[in-house]
Amino acid sequence: METGRTVKDVSPHEFVKAYAAHLKRSGKMELPHWTDIVKTARFKELAPYDPDWYYIRAASMARKIYLRHGIGVGGFQKIYGGRRRNGSCPPHFCKSSGAVARHILQQLQKMDIIDIDPKGMRSAWMGNRYILVRSVH
């Protein structure tokens, strides 16, 4: 007897790649006009080279919310943050862009992929968990 598959059963890289393609195919996600020129963090020097970076980040964020409920903009800033090189000074950790995380969370809520519970925490509700897993297989 075959058991049901969840997001945890699939490789994170394969899931994010497949779900990003699903988000792009669906056409429900509105891209902001600044996606081709914005840096994703203060410590980055250039904008992302991949033209589909927004869908990949959205798929990654949907997966993170599925696995860890209640992550907000600040949590995603820490997750996608990294090392800032300060020239001759020592490097320090720097958070990623809050505007990118905020806009993607708003888009995921608008598409009903994630939901906000009465306590104000974001989570992927059961119907959408099925959609997350189904879109990969």
Overview of this structure, please?
This protein has five helices and four strands. The strands form two sheets. Strands 1-2 form a two-stranded antiparallel sheet. It has a two-stranded antiparallel sheet with strand order 3-4. The chain has a single domain (about 5-135), classed as Orthogonal Bundle (Arc Repressor Mutant, subunit A), CATH 1.10.10. The chain has helices at about 10-25, 55-65, 75-80, 100-110, 125-135, and strands at about 80-85, 90-95, 115, 120-125. It is mainly alpha-helical. The protein is globular and about 55 Å long.
TL;DR of this structure?
By secondary structure, the chain is mostly helical.
Order of helices and strands: HHHEEHEEH
Please estimate the helix content: 40-55%
Which spans of ≥5 residues are poorly predicted at pLDDT below 50? none
The main β sheet shows up as: 2 strands, antiparallel
Pairing-aware structural class of the strands and helices? mainly alpha
Q: What's the alpha carbon Rg, rounded to whole Å?
A: 16 Å
Identify the strand order in the major beta sheet: 1-2
Could you name the CATH topology?
Answer: Arc Repressor Mutant, subunit A
Task: Count all strands and give the number.
Answer: 4
Protein name: 40S ribosomal protein S19
Pfam families: Ribosomal_S19e
InterPro entries: Ribosomal_eS19, Ribosomal_eS19_CS, WH-like_DNA-bd_sf, WH_DNA-bd_sf
Keywords: Ribonucleoprotein, Ribosomal protein
